[in-house]
């Protein structure tokens, strides 16, 4: 299997007012952002080029470097040095893993910003196989300084998060997922919000896993705290919601990625932490997204088994 591809997965079309998914919302918004902000430039590495409908007068601010992911990020770094605001887009492994040295040096070391926007989540296009799976992206960015990370859980959250990101000059990662919650969350600020009260534990649901967490914990005496902006961690909200030592962290990427940050936020308290997410084991599976959710215990039944067993063990 090739490590990159020029073939995009098919996007289901939706109306302009109600995009079918987060990625479609992103593509529909970009032409408007380009028209609104002369600083903005979009940098692609083949992925997405066929879906972006930009008027001819704005086409000069869309740069497609082809299947050259290191060049993708280096180009963004150079553009940022000139005062432009790059929006850089491809699948997570081609945006963070392959060009990690360029993310580290051409953005971080040079002290310039960009908005990295991925699509596909951890395994959102199973037909692409392991080369297109991206569960390690946030863990890698955690080794660097100064990154804001958003994990939207609904197509309607993409616009406010992206508009806020392009208006700044910092380094932002917007991680689009192929699955979404039924309703958008309030993303007017970066606060984590309690969506269910409970007394025997706290479940932190990150981005698009919220609906599954709510279904899995139905009838259990646990609180649910929802996080969309996960870097920086909202330590104040976490501390306010963690009334007992039992905390379950459910992330749509590599299991345990945020464990050290949760532990740091609660460092002066007793803590029993269960981290759920994408397994580190190499499963070598294709199938459908739902199959991967089951494989990693991120479906409703798997989450309920894990949360219920963990909370029951402390009694």
Automatic annotation (TrEMBL):
Transmembrane segments: none
CDD domains in the record: TPP_PYR_DXS_TK_like
Domain Transketolase-like pyrimidine-binding: 20-184
Domain of life where this protein originates: Bacteria
Name of this chain's protein: Transketolase
Source organism of the structure: Pseudokineococcus basanitobsidens
């Amino acid at each position: 299997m090739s490590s990159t591809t020029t073939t995009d997965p098919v996007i289901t079309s939706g109306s302009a007012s109600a995009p079918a998914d987060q990625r479609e919302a992103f593509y529909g918004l970009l032409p408007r952002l380009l028209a609104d902000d002369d600083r903005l430039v979009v940098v692609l590495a083949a992925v997405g080029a066929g879906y972006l409908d930009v008027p001819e007068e704005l086409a000069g601010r869309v740069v497609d470097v082809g299947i050259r992911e290191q060049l993708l990020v280096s180009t963004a770094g150079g553009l940022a040095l000139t005062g432009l605001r790059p929006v850089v887009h491809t699948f997570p492994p081609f945006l963070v893993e392959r060009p990690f040295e360029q993310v580290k040096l051409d953005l971080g070391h040079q002290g310039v910003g960009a908005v990295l926007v991925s699509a596909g989540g951890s395994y959102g296009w199973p037909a692409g196989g392991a080369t297109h799976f991206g569960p390690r992206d946030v863990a890698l960015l955690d080794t660097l300084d100064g990154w804001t990370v958003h994990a939207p859980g609904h197509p309607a959250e993409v616009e406010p998060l992206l508009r806020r990101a392009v208006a700044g000059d910092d380094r932002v990662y917007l991680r689009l997922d192929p699955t979404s919650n039924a309703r958008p969350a309030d993303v007017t600020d970066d606060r984590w919000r309690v969506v269910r009260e409970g007394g025997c534990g706290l479940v932190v649901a990150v981005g698009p896993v919220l609906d599954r967490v709510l279904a899995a914990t139905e009838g259990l005496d646990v609180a649910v705290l929802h996080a969309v902006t996960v870097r920086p961690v909202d330590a104040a909200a976490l501390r306010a919601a963690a009334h007992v030592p039992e905390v379950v962290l459910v992330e749509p990427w590599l299991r345990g990625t945020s464990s050290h940050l949760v532990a740091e936020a609660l460092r002066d308290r007793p803590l029993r932490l269960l981290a759920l997410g994408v397994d580190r084991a190499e499963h070598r599976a294709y199938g459908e997204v739902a199959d991967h959710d089951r494989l990693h215990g991120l479906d409703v039944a798997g989450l309920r088994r894990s949360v219920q067993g963990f909370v029951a063990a402390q009694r």
